[in-house]
Amino acid sequence: MRIDIISIFPEYFSPLDVSLIGKARARGILDIRLHQLRDWTHDVHRTVDDTPYGGGPGMVMKPEPWGEAIDAVIADVPEGVQNAQSAQHGQSAEDAQHAQDAEGAEGAARRESAGEDGAAGRAAAPRLIVPTPSGRLFTQEMAVELAAEPWLLFACGRYEGIDARVMLEYGRRLRLDEVSIGDYVLAGGEVAALVMIEAIGRLLPGVLGNARSVADDSFAPGAMRNLLEGPVYTKPPVWRGHAVPEILLSGHHGKIAAWRHEQAVLRTARNRPDLAARNSASTS
Ligand code: SAM
C-alpha cells in the first residue's frame, strides 16, 4: 500500500519509522511518502493560511497550495498501478506514461470519476482522507475498508481547517472521505492521520506476526463487531497475590472461548453501553 501525507509538519510523522509500521515500511509492505505543503507556495513567507471570510477568530488554510500539492501527488501514479493500466489497455508502460503526461492528472481523475477506466483506473488515483472533527467517525470497520485500498492520501489541516472549496474540488475528482477520530478537537490533522495509519497498517497482510489476533480484537468485524476484548493474562500464574483465572489454565479450548466471550460482553456493558445496546438491538 502507498500512503502520501501532505502537512506543514512532516516531522510529526517520525513515529512511522518505528515498531510495526516502521518494519512494514522497511519490508516494502507500506510505502509512505511525506510532503511539505509549503513547497507549493510562491511567496517569500511560504504562506498557507489567511483570515476567514465572514470574520471570526483564527485562520483558514488557503486553497491554492492544497490544490497544487494534491495535483502533484495524484499525478505521480505508482509504478505497479501504471503497469496494470497499460496491460489493460494493451499499451507499453512508456506509452501509458506519455498518454498520462499529455492528459494531466485532472483529465485522468475526470475519467476515473466517470468510471471510464474500470478497476485499474480507480486504483490509479488515491483515496483522499481529510481528517476533521466534522467528518464521519473513524471506526475499525473503516480501517478494514481502507486497508483494502492500494493508495491513500492524507491531507492534514491546521488552524481552523482547510478552505471548503478544496473538498468540493477533490470530492468531484477523487473518492474523498472527511474523517474524525473522535469527539474532541486536536490542533492539527497529523495526530489523526497517525492514528488512522497505524490502525490501517496493522491490518495489512504480513504486518502482524499472527494475523489471527486481528480477528480477536475489540470491534473486529464478525463476532467482535460491537464488543470490547476482555482481560488478557500471561505468566506468572500468580502475581502479588492475584491469580490468573483458573479456566485459562485448563487447556479446554471451548470453555476458554466461552469465558472470553462472557468477559467481553461484561466489559462492553460496563465501559461502552452504547455498543452493548447495539448488540441487544441486533439480537432482538
Ligand atoms: N475549527 C475546527 C472545528 O471546530 O471543526 C477545528 C479545527 S482543528 C483546530 C485543526 C485541524 O485539526 C483540523 O482541520 C483537522 O485536520 C484536525 N483535527 C482536529 N480534531 C480532529 C479530530 N477529532 N479528528 C480528525 N482531525 C481533527
From TrEMBL:
Chain sites annotated for binding S-adenosyl-L-methionine: 157, 181-186
Localization, UniProt: Cytoplasm
All residue ranges annotated as the tRNA methyltransferase TRMD/TRM10-type domain in the record: 1-81, 124-276
The reaction(s) this protein catalyses: guanosine(37) in tRNA + S-adenosyl-L-methionine = N(1)-methylguanosine(37) in tRNA + S-adenosyl-L-homocysteine + H(+)
SUPFAM superfamilies: alpha/beta knot
EC number(s) recorded for this UniProt protein: 2.1.1.228
MF annotations from Gene Ontology: tRNA (guanine(37)-N1)-methyltransferase activity
Top-rank taxon, per record: Bacteria
InterPro entries cross-referenced by the UniProt entry: Alpha/beta_knot_MTases, tRNA_m1G_MeTrfase_C_sf, tRNA_m1G_MeTrfase_TrmD, tRNA_m1G_MTases_N, tRNA_MeTrfase_TRMD/TRM10
Name of the top EC class for this enzyme: transferase
Main location: cytoplasm
Record's compositionally biased regions (Low complexity): 116-125
GO CC list: cytosol
Chain segments carrying region Disordered: 82-126
Biological process according to GO: tRNA N1-guanine methylation
Name of one Pfam family that matches: tRNA_m1G_MT
UniProt KW Nucleus keyword: no
Keywords: Cytoplasm, Methyltransferase, S-adenosyl-L-methionine, Transferase, tRNA processing
Oligomeric and partner information: Homodimer.
UniProt family annotation: Belongs to the RNA methyltransferase TrmD family.
Known function: Specifically methylates guanosine-37 in various tRNAs.
Name under which the protein is recorded: tRNA (guanine-N(1)-)-methyltransferase
Native source species: Thermostaphylospora chromogena
